[in-house]
Amino acid sequence: MTRSPAPGPAGLTRPGLLWALPATAFFAAFALVPLALVAVLSFTTWNGVGAPRAAGLTNWTALLHDPVMLKSLWLSALLTLLGVLLQTPISLLLGVWAAGHQRNRAILSAIYFVPLLLSATAVSVLWRALLDPNFGLPAQAPWLFGDGNLLGSRDGAIGVLAFVGAWQWTPLHTLIYQGSARAVPPVLYQAAAIDGAGRARQFWHVTLPQLRTTMVTSTVLMVVGGLTTFDTVLILTQGGPGTETTISAYYMYQQGFKNFDFGGASAIALVLVLVATVVSLAMVRLSGYDAMRAGAEGI
Amino acid sequence: MTRSSTPLRTTAAAVACTTALALLTGCGSGGAGGSAGGSGVIHVLVYGDAGNTVEKRIVDTFNKTSKVRAVLDTIPGADYQTKLQTVITTPQAPDVFFDWGGGSIAPFVKAGLLMPLDDMIAKDPALKADFLPSVFNTAVIDGKSYGIPMRGTQPVLLFDNKKVLADAGLTPPTTWDQLLSEVHALKAKGTTPIALGGGDQWPTLMWFEYLFDRVAGPGLFQRAVGGDKQAWADPASLKALGMLKQLVDAGAFGTTFDSVKFTDGGSPALLAKGKAAFELMGSWEYATQQTADPDFAKDQLGYSAFPSVPGGQGDPNDLVGNTNNFYSVRSTTKYPDAVAQFLKLMYSDDFVKAQLAIGNLPTTTNTPDFLAGSANPAYSKYQYDLVKQAPSFQLSWDQAYPPAAMTPMHQTVQRFLDGQLDANGFVRAMQALPTP
C-alpha cells in the first residue's frame, strides 16, 4: 500500500483502505467468524458438553415444524409495531412541545428523560413490583386493572411489555424530535403566521414536513430496538405465561442457555440474522433512508 | 453417528462457545480458575449465596492440614447450572463442584466427565455410611456413586398462616378431602386459600409432583424418568392431573397466580400478610420468611406434610423436594487423594454444626446430636424426622430430568394450569421431554 491517494479538491486526501483495516478486522473477528461458526453449529447437536455431533438438517426441519418459532417471529413483529405506534405520536408531540424555550419546559424535559438513564433491568424490576396484583397498583385501582392478572395473561403480558418499552424509550425519541424541531428555521413559522396559520396548522404544515427525516431515523431506531428486545422479557415474563411472550431473541437464549441445545439455538440465530437483514433492507428502500443526504441539502 | 468429530468442528464449537460466553457473561467475571498442570491447587466450585460462609470455613480447615491447597470459587445466582455447563469441558473446569445429583449431572456422567466415587468409598466407607440412604442415592447413576452430600436437605412442606387458619376454625389438612373442604371454607371467607408463585412455574410443579406420588407411588415416576413414555399416560398419572385441575377449578390459587412469583417475594408475602392460608414450598420457606418478616416466621408460620390421598398407592410419608446438594468430582482431577480428604469434611461434626447454625439441615447420621444448636431446633428436628422416615424422597422432577427438559416441563405445567393444554396435550408434552 505505497500508492499515495490523490489530493482532493479542498486539499484533503481520500481516505485509504488502510484506515478501514482495524474496523474490518474487528468486524471479521467478532461478527463474520462467529456467524460462520454459528452456521456450522446449526447443523450439529451440541449440549455444551463434549464435542458437537453432526446432525444434518435435524435442527432446521425441527425449526420448520416448531410452532413456537413462528409465533416468536410474529410476537417480535407485534411488539415492534406496538412500540412504533405507541411511541411515535407521544414522543413527536412531547419533542415539539419541549423545543420551546421557556424555563419550565427545560425542567419538565429533564424529568421526562429520567427513564432513559435507568438500565432496562432496573426498569423491568421496577415495573414488575409496581404491577404486582396483590401489593402493587392493581390492588389500589381495581376499577382500572380488574383482578390485576397482567403478567399472567397473554394480552396483559404483551401490553405490559409494550408499555414498559414505551416508558423507557419515549424519552430518547422525544430528545431526537426536540433537537430536530429546534432546527426548523423560525422564518418558516413567521411566514406561516403572516399567512394566517394557527398553531395547529403550523404544526401540521410546517413542523411535520420538516421532521420527516427525523421520523425515519426515529422509526429505524424503534424497529431495531424492538427486534432486539430481550432484557425486559427475561425479567418481566420469562417468555410466559406458557410461551405467550417468547419473542425470537428470548427463544434463542432459552434454547441455548437454558435447554443446552446449542444446535437448535444456532438455527434460530441464523433465522434472526436473515429476518433482520431483510427488514433493514426493506426499511432502507421504503423509507428513503438512503436518500437522506439529498434531504439534508434541501433547505 | 460416531462420537468423533473433526478437529475443525471442535475448534469451531469452542470458539463459538467462548465468544457467546464472553458476550453473555462479560469476560473474566471471577469464576473458576484453572486447575490444569501440577499447581498443587484444587478448585472447589459452589453456588454463590449465603451458604458460602460454611464453605469458606471448610476450605480453610482443609488448607490447614493439606499440602494441596483448596481454592473456593463461587458463581452467583440462578445462572449456576448454565455457567457450570459451559466451563466443565474447558481446562478451567473445577476439581470438585456443587450440584443437585440426578439429572443435573447425568449429561456429565454420560460424557465421561465425572469420577465414580466408589473407590474412594471403598477406602473410607463413612463417605457413604454416614449419610441417610434416601439422600445419598440421588447421586447414584447406573449403580455408581457420583456425589457426596453437602449442604442440606430441602423437602417440600405445606406451610400455613396459623392465624388465618385459627380465625377460620381450621387445622392443617391431613387428607386430600380435608384440603378441598378447607379451600371452600377459606374462599367463602374471602381469603385466597393457597399462595402460588405461578410466574416462576416451578412452584406449580411441586403440587403435581406430590399428587403424582400420592396417587401412583414413587415407581411410576421412576418409569417415566427411565424412558418409559407410557408412564405419563397411566391412569394414575391422569388421575393426579385431574386432581390438580380440581384444585384450580375450585379457585384454590385465586386468579392471579401467574402474575405472582416466589423469587421476588410475592407469594411468601401473601402468606405472611394473611392474604392466603397455605403455601406449598421447599423448606427454605422458613429462611425466606425469617428474612422478610421475622415476627411472622417466629410466631405464625405453621408447617405440615403434604396431605394423604385416600386410595392412592403412595405412602403418605413420601417426600418430594431437593434431596440434598452434592459434591461431584471431575474425572481429570490431578489430586484425587486430596479431593477424598476434602470430601471427608462433609460428615465432620464441625461441618454439621456450621450448617445447622445457618439454617441448613445436613443429612448425616449424626445430625440429630446437634439439632439443639440449630437456628430453629423444633423445625430442624421435624424436617430431619420426616426425611429419615420417608420411604421415598423424590428429587424435584426438573432436577431429576436432564437440564434440557427443565423449561419445556415448566411451561407444560403452567399451560395446563392456565387451561391452554388439556390432559392429553399435557401427556404428549411430557412424553416429548428428553430423559437422562
UniProtKB/TrEMBL annotation, chain A:
Keywords: Cell membrane, Membrane, Transmembrane, Transmembrane helix, Transport
ABC transmembrane type-1 domain boundaries: 73-283
Location of the protein in the cell: Cell membrane
Transmembrane segments: 20-43, 73-99, 106-127, 262-284
Annotated Gene3D superfamilies: MetI-like
Lineage top rank: taxon: Bacteria
Protein family membership: Belongs to the binding-protein-dependent transport system permease family.
Protein name (record): Xylobiose ABC transporter membrane protein
Species whose genome carries this gene: Kitasatospora viridis
From TrEMBL, chain B:
Gene3D superfamilies per UniProt: Periplasmic binding protein-like II
Signal peptide as annotated in the record: 1-22
InterPro entries recorded: Bact_solute-bd_prot1, SBP
UniProtKB keywords: Signal
Pfam family name, one: SBP_bac_1
UniProt name for this protein: Xylobiose transport system substrate-binding protein
